[in-house]
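Bench log. Compound arrived from synthesis this morning; before running ITC I wanted a structural hypothesis for how guanosine-5'-diphosphate sits in the protein. Inputs:
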Amino acid sequence: MTNSFRSGFVAIIGAPNVGKSTFMNRILGQEISIISPKAQTTRNKIQGIYTDSQQQIIFLDTPGVHQPKNSLDQYMDQAAYSALKEVDLVLMMVSAQAALDDTAHKLLDKLSALNVPVFLVINKIDLINPDKLLPLIDQYNNLLKFTEIFPISATQGNNVPELLAAIGQNLPEGPQYYPEDQLSDHPEYFVVAEIIREKILELTRQEVPHSVAVLVDQMNQRLNNKLQIEVTIYTERDSQKKILIGTKGSMLKQIGIRSRKKLEDLLGEKINLKLWVKVQKNWREDPLFLARAGYAL
Ligand code: GDP
Ligand code: K
Ligand code: MG
């Protein structure tokens, strides 16, 4: 028997509070929800990466399940839906307590058009009478032909290992996209990058943040009791680089100050943040760069 490695991208979609973060925390064995940024500012969408000897599952959050309110939301919405077409598998997470509502119907509609396996994950089964489960499954089953249906409790862990195994079985054979240590031990790399991107978004015009990729070069040293974080902000054009740096470095300084404050709050320690800005033309079309930046879609 050959033991081929499987890997792929898995989108988790579901309404707020169905338990997506709790589920991720359980899988990754660490608290990442507190450092997960607001849905609307998450472009990267990577929630966490699970790696074992058999498989690597890259979980993507899809913020676009809400009604778009402005053009940025619209952008996220489109990004989310187009992302769904690119992933290898979709987990639709619902709460066992919630009735099928309009949002669920709309989602199911979108999902029916996909060509990838779609799992229904019914979370919070610890909160309902077991008798209610089968009728609920029937309801969903009538609306979409799911590849698998998993009732789970993200808080208690029921059925979570089985779900992980089934995901792995449904992923294609593939490489380990990300180094195990970087992402399973340091999901905060992503969060740090996302927070800096969020600050860039706050401080510059739309055109700039959308051309920006933020990569954490390193964050594993402490000097004088401060965590040293080194980050490169990549942008597509010289003109954007100028804006990001600002007059005598004033913009980059502001980005640094705001980012550091938030990061210190989130990570709970003093930080020395070093930011660089580099031009990387057409990074959005460069698959290797995208993979490195975590935008591997
Ligand atoms: P998200 O918005 O989808 O990321 O949802 P969260 O993970 O933040 O969870 C929302 C709330 O539901 C939190 O209070 C969780 O503790 C709770 N929750 C999540 N999963 C379960 C579960 O399996 N059982 C119960 N009883 N509560 C859960
Ligand atoms: K939440
Ligand atoms: Mg969440």
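What the model suggests: Residues 16-17, 21 surround potassium ion (ligand 2) (CB under 6 Å). Residues 141 and 162 are 20 Å apart (CA to CA).
ITC booked for Thursday regardless.
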